[in-house]
Amino acid sequence: MEEYSAIPNVKVQAVSDLMDKNLQHCKDRYNVPVLANDYHDVIKVDSIHAVHICLPNSLHFPACKEALEAGKHVLVEKPITLTSKEGNILVDLAAEKGLTLSVGHIYRFNNALAEVKRLISENFFGRVFLLNLTWTNLEPIFNDRDVIVDLAPHYFDIVNYMLDAWPAKITCVAKPYRQKENPEATYISCEMPNGAIAHAHLNWLSPKKVRSIELVERTGRRSSMRSVKRSRYTNLAIPTSSEWKGTTPSGPSCCISSSPSRTRRPRPGTPVPSA
User: Fold this and answer.
1) How many folded domains does the chain comprise?
2) Do 128 and 229 fall within a single domain?
3) Which of the chain's ends, N or C, has fewer CB atoms near its CB within 10 Å?
4) Which of 45, 71, 103 is the last residue of a domain?
């Protein structure tokens, strides 16, 4: 609600939530006119042009399908659906209806990722060898989801965004530890078409919240005697939601650190402060 209220020419017309106190908060603070406990009631409102679906993963497909059939543009939290078949159905339906269907891959709008993608496109890093992603924090036991479905969409989308390719081969190991089902920790390795390896460590068991991405690449430096090749890495420290206060309207400011030392001035308007 806070983000939507700050967007010019956007008015939140309705909110659905199972908890009445949340609805009352939306009414008192944001003056939302239509409040409902059933999301179906929101989709039926004719004056609504677009909906943001933040339901449990299992409800993403039916809610998106209903909204698209009602002529609404849709922004849905990841994962878009629980199966690729259902995802393709929604994509086809949106195209048929001439509607926008977007998934909340929020890290595509992260300033640090945008800057590194620019540097990759300008061959600043040279050949990328490795992309290591760590996404860990302590969560309660979830009975309706696992760490792969819940967190890996960010990983795969970031890999595709940064390297402009999908994996050629994927291997994965995952385990539940505090319950019999629903993995809570996983290691995923992807072999990319250009030979790079993208690796992810995801878990809901680590007491410290970590959101980091490391690029390992080779850069060439020409000397008077010979061409010297060296390895280097770039580490992105992604802020947690609690660190987003006071950030710029374009998104949270992030830290890019690299080794060995080599700096390039970021483009104007791209906040990338030093650590």
Assistant:
1) 2
2) yes
3) C
4) 103
